[in-house]
Amino acid sequence: MSEAKKGDKVKVHYTGKLNDGSVFDSSENREPLEFEIGAGMMIAGFDKAVVGMKVGDTKTADIPADEAYGAKNDEMVVQVPKSQLPEDLKPEVGQQLGMQQPNGQNIPVVVTKVEDETIEIDANHPLAGKDLVFDIEMVEIN
Q1: 111 DSSP β-pair partners
Q2: Are 91 and 111 in contact (CB under 8 A)?
Q3: Quick one: 100 and 131 in the same domain?
Q4: How far apart are the first and last CA of the chain?
Q5: pTM for this structure?
Q6: Are 65 and 80 found together in one domain?
């Protein structure tokens, strides 16, 4: 039976958790996740975790933040004057918004603070700065 290696297309079932055990994503009750190992489709730590697995293997992989979504970047937390927001927008902490960059690309942001004249938004990936734990089952290797 062959082991998964860089360049292989694989299908896996997974459950992604934080260190406190809370689940942030899972393929349970869905099709397995399909990707090519080493093609940049997955976070680096997940790619590394599946290398060497055989069909039917299961494992738990601890992935540090630097091999996941990286450290939280304080420069991606910014204050925005409420005067720059659409008039009908009533911002609340935890609300997800889309913000258009000068190049036209839309990026998701989360409102982290609401004050009288400004709001604070965070454009970091929600899992930035967090160590992740994945339970992985290898389903198929091509």
Answers
A1: 121
A2: yes
A3: no
A4: 12
A5: 0.83
A6: no
